[in-house]
Amino acid sequence: MADRSDAIRNRHQQEQRGTSDRGWYVDGEKLEEFGIESWKASEGNNYIAIIPPHVADRYFGEEIYVHYDVGVRGSALLCPSMMKRKYCPICAERKRLQSKGVADEDTLKQLRYSRRWLYFIVDMRDDETEAKGIQLYDGPPTIDKAILALSTDPRDPENGPVKDISHQEEGYTLIFKREGTALNTKYSAFVLEKFTEPLKDEWLEQVPEFEEILVWMSADEIEEEFKGAADPEPKHQAEAPEEDDVEVRTYDTDEEPEAEDKSQEEKVNEVKDKVRKRSSRRGR
User: Which residues, given as ranges, of the chain have pLDDT below 50?
Assistant: First the structure.
């Protein structure tokens, strides 16, 4: 009789590492090399310090667009159309079905991408959480919108002073509340708390670039994953964001949008440019 003990042992190791057969957009093996774990907002108040990138004029968050539940394995893949303006088989299929009117709304929704924001953070709740060092926060757009609102002067958001909350010495801890679960999750009570101590040098030295931990698939690989013919042993995935955090983008037109409403996107980019320039002038 065959002995499946090795298979059971391997599956246990997968579970301990937080892996499965799914493809994923964050490389968990890379995170392990950097000594970084994934972080999730807990019920109640959360306290995070955002660690700035090495490039002084770069924004401290990374906007990503993700296709979830792809293929038979339920993989999550970066959308090349939205992130690199390259061909995406999933977006192309959605557009084809939509134009022919042969798919129901649930099918079209399944093929839409979701918008996310990545941040390298330190949990400042207490000494124990701070001792964990840098962690990766995969959050909803609500978080970035709140950061932008708190970083600018409400009386003059276009030309007023800007706060770089990731500044090593003059930055702020972002405090917010999470309530509810699944689709009833709400984020509220966003406030900034001035640093009483500067960010540690070791954190600024350790933080990787986002490009180092993202997993990019070619159009052919995405096609294989989408159709269920992918390699059964993908890269080690990082911990998935909670389902209630995932914001699915919905559009009623046949054309895929550029990213967001143009005027709104321009406004957001102006604020981010101010944060970059202020960080550049001050340095870390």
Answer: 16-20, 232-234, 236, 243, 247-264, 267, 281-284
Q: Decide the pairing of beta strands 44-50 and 75-78.
A: unpaired
Whole-model pTM?
A: 0.78
φ and ψ of 151, to 5 deg: -85, -10
Q: Strand, helix or coil at 279?
A: helix
- In 3D, which of 94, 96, 63, 93 has the Cα closest to residue 250? 94
Task: Tell me the domains of the chain and their CATH numbers.
Answer: 21-255 (3.90.198.10)
Closest CA to 52 of 157, 201, 152, 212: 201
Task: State the residue for tokens 């944060």.
Answer: 275
In the three-class reduction of DSSP (H, G, I as helix; E, B as strand; rest coil), residue 281 is classed as: helix
Q: Comparing C-alpha atoms, which of 61, 37, 48, 4 is closest to residue 210?
A: 61
User: Measured over all CA atoms, what is the biggest interatomic distance in the chain, rounded to whole angstroms?
Assistant: 76
